[in-house]
Write a structure and sequence with these properties.
Blueprint: H1 2-14, H2 16-37, H3 51-59, E1 70-76, H4 86-101, E2 105-108, E3 119-120, E4 124-131, H5 140-149, H6 151-155, E5 159-164, H7 165-170, H8 177-194, H9 197-221, H10 230-259, H11 264-291, H12 299-320, H13 322-330, H14 347-360, H15 362-377, E6 385-386, H16 398-409, E7 418-423, H17 483-497, E8 502-505, E9 509-511, E10 514-521, H18 528-546, E11 553-557, H19 559-593, H20 597-622, E12 638-639, H21 642-672, H22 675-702, H23 710-742, H24 768-771
Parallel strand pairs: 6-12
Antiparallel strand pairs: 1-4, 1-5, 2-4, 3-4, 7-10, 7-11, 8-10, 9-10
Length: 777
C-alpha cells in the first residue's frame, strides 16, 4: 500500500491542476444536488418488531387517519388576546379548519366540535394533527402551508407554538458562530504546532472542502431515505475533527522530508507512503467502528453512522488527493508567514524527559491513572436510557414552549398520551345502537370529548354519526361495534384507570372488532415514572385483562411508548455492538502488530476512556452537575442511542492515537531491543503530534455543545471528554507506564524471539534534533 500511496501522491503533484478542477466540480455538483434535491431531516417513522409498531398496524384497519405522524399545535394567550374571548375563539376555529383542509393532514382535533377532541381552557387551545403517510413524505412546501394555516390566530394576537413532528422538522439542524469558534481554536493549535500561518491553514482548508461535499450528499440522501436530524451534526463534528487531524499528520511528515533535503514531489510521495498509510488505517478503523452501529437493529442509528462514516471517508480521500496537490502547488513556501517566537520543534526533548520519568515511576503512575479513570466512570453505573421528548428540549425551542404550556394548563402527561389498541378475532353480532345524538362527555379539568388517539375523552362506544357531516379523517362511528370488543374495551378501561400513575383513561372508541383507548399519564414524557408505567401496563395490567378474552390482542402504543421501545431495543443490542466492534478491532491490532498483549491492553485502555466519558456525561446531564453551563435547565436522562453511538466513535478515535503511538514504539523496539527506551523515544517522537491532534478534536467537538438539541450536546461533550482523557491520562501516563512494567512481554508472539540489541541500545540513541519533526509512518 505504501508504494501505491507514494505513486498517488506524486501523481497529484504533477497533475495538481486537474485535481483542483475535479474537486471544484465535485463540490459544485454535490452542493447543487443538495440544495436543489435535498430532503428534510426527520425522525424514524416505524420501529419494526416493537409493541408500538404492532399497535399502529392493528389501528390501521379501522382508524387509518390516526396512524400517521402526529403534530401538536398550541394556541396560547398573550397580553393582547385570549382564546377565552369568543371573538378570538372564532379565529382559532378558523385556523383549525384551515389545518384540517390541508392535503397533508389526515385528521385534526377540534375542541369546538363535540366528539372531535382537543383541549381548551381560558388561556390555551391544544389540538393534535395526524399527517398522511410517513415523516419522510413531508416536504418544505407542506410545512410552509402548515405554518400559514394558523395565521388567523396570530393575526388575532395569539402565540402559536408547534410541538411533535412539525416542530422537529421546522427546526432543521443548522450551524452557527460556535462552530466557527471551534475552527478558529483549531487554527490556533495548528499555528502552535507548525509556527506558520500558511501551514496551519492547509488542514482547515482541506477539511472544509471535504465537509462541504459530505454535508451536501447527506442532505441529498435525506430526499430518498429518512435521515435523522442528528446525522448532519454528528457527521460535521467527526468529519471536521478527523479531516484536520489527518491533514496535520501528512503536512508534518512533508515538512520533515523537505527538511531532510527532498524535492517537493519526493517529499509529498514519501509523506504519503508513511503518514498516508497511517491515515488510511486510522480512517478505516473509525469507519469500521461506526458501521458497527448497523448491528443495533435501528435503521436511523445505522444511517447516522453511515453519514458519519461518509464524512470520515471523504476526509481520507481529501487528505490523499487534494492535500498532495495543495502541497505540490505551495512547494517550499509552506513555511512562509511564520509566527514570531514560536519554535514548536523544541518539545521532543521535554516529552522524552517525561517518558523517562514515567518509566522510572511506572507503578505509581499506573495505579493513580487507573484509579482516576475508574473514579470518572462511577456515574456510569447509574446511567439510565431516556427518551427524546419535547419536554427536555431547549427552553428556546418552540416544541419545549408548547410542552410547557400544555403542562401548565392541563398537566404534564396530557402532552403525550398513550394509546391502547385492542382487537378481537372473527365476527360476532354487533352491539345494539345507542341514541342518535352524540353525548358531550367531560374529562378532568373540564376537557371535552375526542375521537382520535391524541385527545382526552372519547365519545360513547355506541355513538352514531351526528346529523352534520363528520370532518375529514374522523372515525366512522356508524360501523357497528363488535360486542366482544365493547366488553374488552370496558374491561381495559376499568383495569387501567386504577393503575397508579394514570391520570385519566378515556372511554373506548370502538369500530368493528377494534377498540381504541387513550391513557393520560400523570408524569412528563421523559421522567422515569412514565417509562415504568409503560412497562407495568404492558407487563402485568394488560395481560391480566387478556386472560379472560381468548384470541384477543392488545397493544400499547403512542409517541412516548414508541421512544421507550427504541430505548429498550438499543439497550438489548448494546452488548452485541460492543462485542463486535471490540472483537474486530482486536483482530486488526493483532494483525498489525503481531502481538497478543498489546491489542488486549489497547482495548482495555479504550474501554476505560469510554467509561470515563460516559461517567462525565451521566454526571452532567442525568445528575445535573453544572448542567446550566451547557444551556439545559433541568436534569435529563441520557438519550437511548447516545451511549451506543459514543462507544463506536470513541473506540475508533482512540484506536487512531493508539496506533500512532504503538507503531513508533514498536519500530524503536525492533531497532534497539530495549522495551524501556523504545517507550521513551516513542513518546518523544509522537506526543506533540498526538496532543495537537487531540486538542483540535476537543475544540471542534466542544464547539457543538451550544447546539440546542440535547442529543447533540451529550455527544459533543462526551466525545470531547473522551479525546481529552485518551490523549492525556491514557496515552501519556497509563500506556507508557504499563508498557514499561510489562517490558518484553508487550511484544510476545508465539515462536518469535526477542530482537537483538543494536547500536542504539548501546548508547547511540537518536538525538532530540532527529526527533524534532518526526512523524510515525
Amino acid at each position: 500500500m505504501a508504494r501505491t500511496l507514494e505513486r498517488l501522491g506524486r501523481l497529484c503533484v504533477r497533475r495538481r491542476r486537474a485535481v483542483f478542477e475535479l474537486w471544484v466540480l465535485v463540490m459544485l455538483g454535490a452542493g447543487i444536488l443538495g440544495f436543489v434535491q435535498g430532503g428534510m431531516f426527520v425522525q424514524q417513522s416505524s420501529l419494526p418488531g416493537t409493541e408500538t409498531q404492532r399497535a399502529v398496524d392493528t389501528l390501521r384497519q379501522d382508524f387509518p387517519a390516526m396512524t400517521g405522524p402526529t403534530a401538536t399545535v398550541v394556541f396560547h394567550a398573550t397580553a393582547e388576546a385570549s382564546p377565552g374571548d369568543w371573538r378570538v375563539a372564532l379565529t382559532v376555529g378558523k385556523a383549525i379548519e384551515r389545518l384540517t383542509a390541508l392535503d397533508r393532514v389526515a385528521f385534526a382535533e377540534n375542541p369546538y366540535i363535540q366528539g372531535m377532541g382537543g383541549m381548551k381552557s381560558h388561556d390555551a387551545v391544544v389540538i393534535r394533527v395526524n399527517l398522511k403517510g410517513t415523516m419522510g413524505d413531508v416536504s418544505a412546501a407542506d410545512l410552509e402551508r402548515f405554518d400559514e394555516a394558523v395565521e388567523p390566530a396570530r393575526m388575532a394576537g395569539l402565540d402559536v407554538e408547534f410541538g411533535g413532528i412539525v416542530a422537529m422538522i421546522l427546526n432543521q439542524p443548522k450551524g452557527g458562530p460556535q462552530e466557527g469558534v471551534g475552527i478558529m481554536l483549531a487554527m490556533l493549535v495548528l499555528l502552535l504546532a507548525f509556527g506558520s500561518f500558511l501551514a496551519a491553514g492547509i488542514p482547515i482548508l482541506v477539511s472544509l472542502c471535504g465537509m462541504a461535499v459530505a454535508y451536501s450528499l447527506i442532505h441529498f440522501a435525506a430526499s430518498a431515505v429518512e435521515v435523522h436530524p442528528t446525522a448532519p451534526m454528528v457527521a460535521a463534528m467527526l468529519g471536521i475533527g478527523a479531516g484536520i487531524d489527518y491533514a496535520l499528520f501528512i503536512v508534518t511528515r512533508y515538512r520533515q522530508q523537505l527538511a531532510d533535503g527532498d524535492d517537493v514531489e519526493t517529499a509529498v510521495g514519501r509523506a504519503m507512503a508513511h503518514s498516508g498509510h497511517a491515515v488510511v488505517f486510522a480512517g478505516g478503523t473509525v469507519v469500521f467502528a461506526i458501521c458497527g452501529l448497523f448491528l443495533s437493529g435501528i435503521s436511523f442509528i445505522g444511517r447516522i453512522g453511515l453519514a458519519s462514516a461518509l464524512a470520515v471517508g471523504l476526509m481520507v480521500l481529501a487528505a490523499l488527493t487534494l492535500l498532495p496537490a495543495i502541497l505540490g502547488a505551495l512547494g517550499t513556501r509552506i513555511d512562509r508567514y511564520k509566527l514570531p517566537r514560536v519554535r514548536p520543534d523544541r518539545s521532543s526533548t521535554r516529552w522524552m524527559s517525561w517518558g523517562r520519568h514515567v518509566d522510572r515511576n511506572a507503578w505509581p503512575y499506573a495505579i493513580v491513572a487507573t484509579l482516576v479513570l475508574l473514579a470518572l466512570s462511577i456515574p456510569t453505573l447509574s446511567l439510565r436510557f431516556g427518551v427524546m421528548a419535547d419536554s427536555i428540549s431547549s427552553p428556546k425551542m418552540d416544541s419545549r414552549q408548547a410542552y410547557d404550556i400544555v403542562a401548565k394548563e392541563f398537566g404534564a402527561g396530557h402532552y403525550s398520551p398513550f394509546v391502547i389498541v385492542a382487537k378481537v378475532p372473527g365476527k360476532e353480532a354487533p352491539a345494539k345502537p345507542a341514541k342518535r345524538e352524540v353525548p358531550t362527555l367531560k374529562g378532568p379539568d373540564g376537557l371535552t370529548g375526542l375521537t382520535g388517539p391524541q385527545g382526552t375523552v372519547a365519545p360513547s362506544p355506541t355513538a352514531r354519526k351526528p346529523s352534520i357531516p363528520l370532518p375529514k379523517g374522523a372515525p366512522d362511528l356508524t360501523k357497528k361495534p363488535d360486542k366482544r370488543a365493547v366488553v374488552l374495551g370496558q374491561a381495559l378501561k376499568q383495569r387501567v384507570s386504577e393503575v397508579p400513575g394514570v391520570a385519566f383513561t378515556a372511554e373506548p372508541v370502538i369500530i368493528g372488532t377494534t377498540a381504541m383507548i387513550q391513557v393520560i399519564p400523570a408524569t412528563a414524557p421523559h421522567v422515569e415514572e412514565t417509562t415504568d408505567l409503560v412497562h407495568r401496563l404492558r407487563g402485568t395490567e394488560i395481560p391480566g385483562v387478556l386472560a379472560g378474552h381468548p384470541g384477543a390482542t392488545v397493544h400499547l402504543g403512542g409517541e412516548n411508548p414508541a421512544i421507550i421501545d427504541l430505548a429498550d431495543t438499543v439497550g438489548d443490542r448494546m452488548l452485541t455492538v460492543v462485542v463486535a466492534v471490540v472483537g474486530v478491532a482486536l483482530a486488526l491490532l493483532v494483525i498489525a502488530f503481531r502481538s497478543i498483549i498489546v491489542p488486549i491492553k489497547a482495548a482495555l485502555m479504550n474501554l476505560l476512556s469510554i467509561g470515563a466519558s460516559f461517567g462525565v456525561v451521566t454526571a452532567v446531564f442525568q445528575w445535573g452537575w453544572g448542567i446550566q453551563l451547557f444551556g439545559v435547565d433541568q436534569a435529563i436522562p441520557i438519550m437511548s442511542f447516545v451511549p451506543l453511538f459514543m462507544f463506536a466513535l470513541i473506540f475508533g478515535l482512540s484506536m487512531d492515537y493508539e496506533v500512532f503511538l504503538l507503531s513508533r514504539i514498536k519500530e524503536e523496539y525492533e531497532r534497539s531491543g530495549d522495551p524501556h527506551e523504545s517507550v521513551v523515544i516513542g513518546i518523544g517522537a509522537t506526543a506533540r503530534l498526538i496532543t495537537s491532534a487531540a486538542l483540535i478534536m476537543i475544540f471542534v467537538f466542544a464547539s457543538f455543545v451550544p447546539q440546542p438539541d440535547p442529543t447533540v450536546k451529550m455527544m459533543a461533550l462526551g466525545l470531547a471528554v473522551a479525546v481529552a482523557v485518551d490523549a492525556t491520562i491514557v496515552r501519556l501516563v497509563l500506556v507508557p507506564a504499563l508498557m514499561s512494567l510489562l517490558g518484553h512481554a508487550n511484544w510476545w508472539w508465539p515462536g518469535r524471539s526477542r530482537p537483538a540489541p543494536s547500536a542504539a541500545a548501546e548508547g547511540h540513541e537518536p538525538t532530540a534534533e532527529q526527533l524534532e519533526l518526526e512523524l510515525i509512518g
